């Protein structure tokens, strides 16, 4: 790309000085992230890990209304680890049940894919609008987000990525995250393919306050008429209702409201105030690589820029936030810890492997769901049930992908490549039971040792956190926590007890910073080799 090379030089000489000065004030600029929840979440995680970020957002401000509506169980776990969930919980509405309604009555209610989730605290969707999430992220990123910055040029060389915006703002960085939506300028500019299918389905979507004699309940309701399931009602925060309506022929707000009334009959419905009305046509597309230069570049794609699909199953925002959680620690590792090039490549390329495979599956699940809206509600719900692992987020796994960050192994309810179970522990610091996820810190590997105290690994201690969990003392004994008596090698890890630990247990689980299990080891050397295989 010779023309791009010329542009880079121009950008470097003419602007990097000014821009660089701006960024050098707070350390050398490392990242540019482009707005929206995926970009904002990545930016916040990076910022917290001490990586300098500059976020360019094409929008003039935060989103006010509409868009995505639910955080699944896995995303809630991520937000908990990031210390953000407590702020969102009181603003959202919990929902763990899907029901179907036809011919004037409820036909079925199902929630086993939510209530049956094991090893998790929040077994529900948290219904909450995307604007609330963006506002929360923006408020924590003051001074790092530049609004109204449309990217007009992007180029990368061996060392840097150069971006110019419509206002003439120029940024040079080591990596660029393109989270700039389905029509991603960056993806197009770099010529990364974005291919797939486009079923001809146009949906209307409304956020509205209704008055109705319908028996209101905090459930996702799929309405069936004439053997199809073209209306869904999602309960939301503030008493708001979100409706998805698949129409035939002309799509308008008026026709969507008429369809809702027809499906909810014989109950009456009045639309009191509609906050947001939009339409979307279903596209199912995925980028050919989530990394520029076919996996060897410095530009990474995430969120809608990397994958788009129908909203059925609520996976869009959740998959984007999961991309962010999967990516930020990798970028922090490669920029802060002076890793050898091969190690950096492994970390960055495994992002593409793991997240692109996940995105393909997400697209398949959403595709099955959106097509089943043309079928009976019970078939639609059966498809939800079959694909619940993706809808709750808890079944997304990196097992069997040959990821260099997963060393196939399993023991008890721990499996390398699967999500780390959230388990109940009892700590010495606080009385009573608590959850493992509430004790971890984003950005470090967790060396979780069961029934023993691990030797610290001096070389990579800066990226490790140590947690030891011992068997509970027998009932009635007033032994102190076993661990407190042990030689702890002057190790300042956290220590807990748990009744799921057996007296003979003695193993170590390495949990990656994105809360996926990397390796389960039965000897000390094993886990240290695993860490070395990533950091060296
Ligand atoms: C499911 O949701 C209902 C209604 O909000 C709640 O009462 C119930 O405790 C939830 N079940 C589980 C297992 O979380």
UniProtKB/TrEMBL annotation:
Keyword Transmembrane part of the UniProt annotation: yes
Membrane-spanning segments: 12-34
Which cofactor does this sequence's record say it needs?
FAD
In this protein, which residues make up the domain named FAD-binding?
Answer: 32-364
Write out the entry's keywords from A to Z.
FAD, Flavoprotein, Membrane, Oxidoreductase, Transmembrane, Transmembrane helix
Q: Name one GO molecular function term.
A: oxidoreductase activity, acting on paired donors, with incorporation or reduction of molecular oxygen, NAD(P)H as one donor, and incorporation of one atom of oxygen
Top-level lineage group: Eukaryota
Entries under InterPro entries matching the protein: FAD-bd (IPR002938), FAD/NAD-bd_sf (IPR036188), RIFMO-like (IPR050641)
Q: What is this protein called?
A: FAD binding domain-containing protein
Q: Which organism is it from?
A: Stachybotrys elegans
